[in-house]
Amino acid sequence: MVLLVPDDSEDLAEEVFGTSDDSGQPKAQLDDGEASKATQKVDLDLDDAPFLEDEEEEEDELAFSEEETPLLEEKKKSGFDFKSLLKNKMVLAFGGIILLLIVVIIILLFRSPEETESPPPPPPQVEEPVQQEIIPEEVVEETPEILIRLDPFLIEQRDKDNTIRFLEVRIVVSTLEDGLARQFKQETYTVRNALFYYLKNKDLQFLSDKNNSDKLKKELLAIINQYMGFGQFDTLLFEQYLVR
């Protein structure tokens, strides 16, 4: 690097080349030997003055630092103010929520399948009862049973000791046929005489035996039905049966 020292060089130039007066002509001229000695002296003086280079380097560094300082200050001013951000409660709360969400997502992603809750089973399907059509049954009108009561019989009998005994009998027949009932009423007198004749001629020992009750009923029922032309009686009951 070549440094220019204006004051010393002008003095040296005047010494070497001589001074000039106001008319522009040199006052004195040096010979070639003196001029070469003078230039050598200047070069030696510059080499022997390293402090001049240090001063110039310091000046360049100061100038460079002065140029960099406003840029750094601008960077600091335009930089992110982290301290003021930490003082903002809303920012801290928002950051905490985001952090919590990230933690929850990580837990859910790395959670084992066994730990995941199985969905609840679907509710059992309730089968709606099928309403069956109820077909109303045909109501069969029951024909009222017709009961026909005969007047009581009082029949005189003699036992084995020839003692007079009396048989009291009240007979009831039943039917569902109205025509048969009307015919019986018409033939009541005839039927009654036939029944009386049968009981009168029957042995008192047979009539007194309870074991002969069913047989006696069948025989009396057969006597009644032989006089009926519109139907037959199926039932005969003893409303009263007494031997005294």
From TrEMBL:
The chain crosses the membrane at residues 90-110. It comes from the Bacteria. One of its GO terms (cellular component) is bacterial-type flagellum basal body. Residues 45-68 have a biased composition (Acidic residues). It is a single-pass membrane protein. InterPro entries: FliL. Its main location: membrane. It is found in: Cell membrane. Residues 1-68 are annotated as: Disordered. One of its GO terms (biological process) is chemotaxis. The keyword Ion transport does not apply. Controls the rotational direction of flagella during chemotaxis. Belongs to the FliL family. This is Flagellar protein FliL. It comes from Pseudodesulfovibrio piezophilus (strain DSM 21447 / JCM 15486 / C1TLV30). The gene is fliL.
